[in-house]
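Hi L.,

You mentioned the student needs an example of a multi-chain input paired with its predicted structure. This one should do, with 224 residues in total across all chains.
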Amino acid sequence: DTEVTQTPKHLVMGMTNKKSLKCEQHMGHRAMYWYKQKAKKPPELMFVYSYEKLSINESVPSRFSPECPNSSLLNLHLHALQPEDSALYLCASSQEGSGGPFYEQYFGPGTRLTVT
Amino acid sequence: KNEVEQSPQNLTAQEGEFITINCSYSVGISALHWLQQHPGGGIVSLFMLSSGKKKHGRLIATINIQEKHSSLHITASHPRDSAVYICAVEEGAQKLVFGQGTRLTINP
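Structure written out for the whole complex:
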């Protein structure tokens, strides 16, 4: 199984809502990532979890709150978002955590988020 | 921080043509990735390179570490190759720096 799954595929939320994005992989990968991608732009790294611990936070606003409950699951909790947060949110995973040689990242299909 | 430049930004070609997409970066890296993104969002990793050349089907990727340059070639291009191709470099553990992407359109 070389698949990263993300739910939901689409999400529309108001600025006062609280919602969560979910990402799952069963490849035994120990690093998981959240990226944000605006239209016609490359992905921007938001967070990296390595061995279930947050290892990189790219100065993301606190209205985005990541969580890694176990090695297969990665959540992104959303609260009080702004319309400019509308984007495609991509999850990825790779074999290794921090340090050591770099491993290929496997991407999920993304969640297209619209904030109204 | 690494600067990753891709060229061309947009490329339209006829089916069957040989395609080349270029990527240059400014600072030494440990690995370079070529990614493919189809409309709708999903990203697929095509290659990860740290030296030399790799081939997979009709796709070939090369890297010249001294010149800080990589190329992605597609032979016998097909309309299904139409996608955005993204070059990304790894400077340190886990972090990728992405180029702006090359939008490829192959017409039948």
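You could point out the following to them. Chain B is about 0% helix and 60% strand. Chain B touches chain A at residues 30-31, 33, 35, 40-45, 48, 86, 88, 90, 93-96, 98-101 (CB under 8 Å).

Best wishes,
N.
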